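To: structure desk
From: M.T.
Subject: fold request, one chain
Message: Could you run this one when you get a chance? Sequence is below, nothing fancy, just the single chain.
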Amino acid sequence: ADFRSDLANQAKGEAYLAIAGMAYYCCPAGLIEPDDVPAPFGLLVEMPDGTFETVKRARRIKDHIINADTVMQLMVKLKSD
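Reply: Done. Structure tokens follow.
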């Protein structure tokens, strides 16, 4: 349900990338198909034996630099937690 919610809210995905510059979804094997994951996100799956496999590589946003406003918002959030 969280994955489907993320797909429906494009701004949420953009926010992930604004912070990280590269992002993966992670789930148990068979729950999400690689073709369901939008570019530039990747997909990691947990195998039945507890190991993880990359089934779709995320595309790194070239020369990603987190902006100052985002850094400040994260710092304020950490301080309030």
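Reply (cont.): Strands lie at 24-28, 42-46, 52-56. Let me know if you need anything else for the meeting.
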